[in-house]
Design goal:
The chain is an alpha/beta fold. The protein has eleven helices and twelve strands. The chain folds into two domains: about 140 residues, NAD(P)-binding Rossmann-like Domain (Rossmann fold, 3-Layer(aba) Sandwich), CATH 3.40.50.720; about 120 residues, 2-Layer Sandwich (Dihydrodipicolinate Reductase, domain 2), CATH 3.30.360. The chain starts with 15 loop residues before the first strand and ends with a helix.
Length: about 300
């Protein structure tokens, strides 16, 4: 039987013209490649603070290089962000005020106040938004959440571990400065909030640059744990969620999934949202919900 989430769908509308902000490793590896693949989207322009990097990102797809951020807005109807959270929080509200749909990264910003300003700008402009929570666009993740929501979960444990902070393209300055809570935290908090039930309280312990433990209390009385680290040497990142309840144990593990399956679904759903004018559940407001949880979990909060 064909999975409806992965079944090919004919795209009969005009492709959404998307401008990309950013030209770093993630922009090149995912955003530019995904948006240019179409048919739902077309990569029309790239802007980055380093013009040479923008040229390298745009050239394989025949996209123009914008000299200024404002110039990018003249050549697109939607803007995708692949930049540090502080830059996204600065520029996304400007794009929203110009009526552009937004494809946003997590976290929305480095702090809650900036995230709230971004979402306020989105609401005032009434633009469509979508959040790049990568795993949420994989069929395996969606089946896990659907099954989990039918269970009476009393407890859960989870982890997201990798070694990117030890060196390489993704050992970027904002990640090394602000640590694993802001980088990996949104993914696990989102999964636990969706699969176990809304998180009422969350607290953290540990070192956000080495290993952080989160304890979540859910509105339904369940308790969950999340272990986060970007400083353990692994060839491949490990994301695992184990749910325990009165029926049976349910396990989600990304070891066997191909993340390439996420991108066509993300692209199609973003383009559909733009063409229909309706954001889905994975939008800026979901990002703000996660940002509020991150704020509560931050050391000293």
């Amino acid at each position: 039987m064909t999975d409806t989430a992965t079944a090919p769908v004919t795209w009969t509308r005009q492709p959404v013209r998307v401008g990309l902000v950013g030209a770093g490793p993630w922009a090149r590896a995912m955003h530019a490649r995904m948006l240019a693949a179409g048919p739902e989207t077309q990569l029309t322009a790239v802007w980055a603070r380093r013009t040479e990097a923008a040229q390298e990102t745009a050239a394989p797809y025949g996209a123009r290089v914008a000299a200024r951020f404002e110039d990018l807005l003249d050549h697109c109807e939607a803007v995708a962000f692949a930049v540090p959270p502080s830059v996204q929080a600065e520029l996304a509200p400007l794009a929203a005020r110009h009526g552009k749909a937004l494809l946003l990264e997590k976290p929305l910003a480095l702090d809650l106040a900036a995230a709230e300003r971004l979402v306020d700008a989105v609401d005032e402009a009434g633009v469509v938004t979508q959040l790049v929570l990568t795993k949420r666009y994989h069929p395996v993740t969606r089946r896990f959440i659907e099954e989990a929501q039918q269970l009476d979960v009393i407890g859960a444990r989870s982890c997201y571990l990798h070694g990117a902070f030890l060196g390489g393209d993704f050992a970027t300055s904002w990640r090394l400065e602000h640590g694993v809570l802001l980088d990996l935290g949104p993914h696990l908090l989102d999964l636990l909030d969706a699969a176990v039930g809304p998180i009422a309280e969350v607290r953290s312990t540990g070192d956000t640059r080495r290993w952080t433990e989160l304890t979540c209390e859910h509105e339904n009385g369940a308790v969950s744990q999340a272990s986060l680290s970007g400083a353990v040497p692994r060839e491949r990142a490990l994301t695992r969620v184990e749910l325990f309840g009165r029926q049976h144990e349910l396990v989600y593990d990304t070891a066997g999934i191909d993340h390439e399956e996420c991108w066509p679904i993300l692209r199609r759903e973003f383009a559909t949202a733009v063409r229909t004018g309706r954001s889905g559940g994975l939008d800026a407001h979901r990002g703000l919900r996660l940002q509020r949880l991150l704020h509560r979990a931050a050391p000293g909060s």
